[in-house]
Amino acid sequence: MAVLGVPELALVALVGVSGSGKSTFARRHFAPSQVLSSDAFRAMVADDENDQSASADAFDALHYVAGKRLRAGRLTVVDATNLQPHARAALVRVAREHDVLPVAIVLDVPEALAWARTEARADRTFGKQVLARMSRDLRRTYAQLAREGFRKVHVLRGVDEIDAAQIRFERLF
Ligand code: GTP
Ligand code: MG
Q: 3-state DSSP call for residue 61?
């Protein structure tokens, strides 16, 4: 069973394709108020959690709130795919600006499973190609993550590892 060490004050970036189980993982391990999800911020700024054209404004707002939380010493989890280097760089920047450690937790499930889950959801309408692109981005991510400034990178491979994972909050001092 994987025990993931996470500093008690951290900015936790979940990383994974759509359908990898990020929101489910966040619900299981963190309080709702600790989790900032890109879906929720798209809905806030554009009334539609799937409106990709609202992403820039949604992430501006998400980073702003993350900064406020970190300044107040509150652990913050970012529930977004975080598959693009620039998306992760923005999170590392927010964490550094507030002297908080950025941590990445990667959820890696087989693409076929992620697709089956996505297809079954009424609130996801994109096609298989979009998911295939996310899977390619995830594979690239592995080579990049180590040198992006994350203090820790935890990788959970497959549903069993994801299911069994526990988080241990670590004191900083
Ligand atoms: P996006 O928000 O689209 O990026 O997806 P996500 O990574 O947040 O995935 P989410 O947690 O929403 O899970 C997608 C679907 O898979 C949901 O219908 C979940 O109920 C299901 N699911 C997620 N994790 C598990 C799991 O561990 N076991 C089972 N059986 N289903 C899961
Ligand atoms: Mg989600």
A: helix
